[in-house]
Amino acid sequence: MSNNNNDGASAVTSAGTVHSEAGHGSLVVEDLQAWYGRFRAVANLSLTITPRAVTAIIGPSGCGKSTFLRCINRMHEVARGARAAGKVLLDGDDVYAPDADPVQVRRHIGMVFQKPNPFPMMSVYDNVVAGLKLAGVKNRAMLDEVAERSLRRAALWDEVNDKLNNSGAALSGGQQQRLCIARALAMEPQVLLMDEPCSALDPVATSKIEDLIRELRQNYTIVIVTHNMQQAARVSDHTAFLLLDEDRAGRLVEYGPTSQLFTNPQDRRTEDYITGRFG
Amino acid sequence: MDLASSEATRVAQRQGPTPVIGGGTNVGDRIFHLAVLSAAQSVLVLLAALVVLLFIDAKEALGRFGLSFLTTTDWDPVFEKFGTAHFVFGTLVTSLVALVLAAPLAIGTALFLAEYAPRWLREPVAFVIELLAVIPSIIFGLWGFFVLAPIMRGYVEPFLKATVGQVPVLGELFSGPAIGKDLLTAGVVLAIMILPTVMAIAREVVRSVPDTQREGMIGLGATKWETITGAVLPYARSGLVGAVMLGFARAFGETMAVTMVIGNSSNVISASLLTPGYTMASAIANQFTEADKEIYFSAVVAVALVLLLVSVIINGLARLLVWRGAGNVATRR
What we know:
The complex is a heterodimer of chains A (279) and B (333). Chain A has 279 residues and is an alpha/beta fold.
């Protein structure tokens, strides 16, 4: 599939030089396809994601929404037999360019997973700065500063500032998920991907995370996969609706402002889905 | 110990307490219940009987020598002096040598099989390594005696003496003549024997690390290597320690192969791995046919009792660690 090198002047290089303050976290997905072995999970998906806004990906189970999300930071290809083709332009630079380093890509595009996955053998503090340590940051003062800032942004500082040395696994489920968000924010990503971040949480913890998402929108481009339409309606500015086509590959059906998609869907299938006629 | 039983215990532990099924009104049910109950009971009774009988036979020696049985190195049946510190020492040293040699190999293999190897390669390689576990120990003994010991004497030990042996403190480990049948050779044979045990359990432990842990690390921009050292190994740590300790416990009680290559002499405790020595197990194997006097026999049995108790303790600790490591998966996934 077309994996054309863009003009090459500004691809995300292995040195990571392209990441600049000027980056707003704009994402343009062009003709993205993803496979598991021979099975094609996502077909010819193109969409432009607005920077500093929340974009929700909704659709029935197995429609490839998580796969699509994982393609954005090249996490999809980590699974055995999985591959992807197409373009994902982060501030104009193709993360699938031949000279793009997936490890660097993932430092610029943070990810939060379905189940909270703090590192249980690390303290709360070490969980937050784990990514920075990987990137080679050793300056203790800088790590301290980033840890506090990230925990504050994740609305967790007040709850954990007296137990930074406790295990990350000792926190409650909702706190663990916010710790994982802090861990991703510590990398100063332009984009934050969230793969059903509330599916393992209770309603109270869920609403805290949703508040947080609305808060973070001011500084980050957020793409969130959710199986919960109410959640999409509550937190997102734009919504993309994915559905399996006749080849059982996920395809984009409709994409637009959340209010419009939920109140006045343009496609019959979207309407059927959001009114609960299937899915 | 064998893997099948350890697997069975783990499964049993996961399933928790057995449901009470004895209350059935059906006669067949009751008979079956009694049959399996008495089977389980008789195993416990046998185990208890074993310990009690060992204790009865060992009582005379333990009573006469007390703690000095464990702290002195005189083993002189003629003058009826029995101290076993050097047996204990030999057991610990050979088991430690085995552990130092086998643990990195076994854990490295486990990581390769679980994290790197293509799927088609995993099972065949694991199968071949686990096959090592079913080779009777007498075969390791014969191989050690006829093949390994001459190689150790002719090449390995002279090489070690010429290199590490020249380093000030470490050199003490390789002082004295290269004999070939000594603590070091016994340790090497033991390392090969415990390799499959440690590898198989380590592989299970690594495989039980949830993928969400790996993804969390990869998502932060970690390379494969950083993912393994930063997420997989810390998560698997207690289980891996348990795997190594189970290997240690196996090395501890191993008798036949060790007896054939350890030299079976010397009443001294020396820093050199090139000294011939005894382990508790090899001492028993060597002495029990000659134990004509009652106190001599009692001393041999006392060695067996010490060996049994230490093995039970190490095994128990190791299982606790492996079990806790596996328990992480359920609670933290």
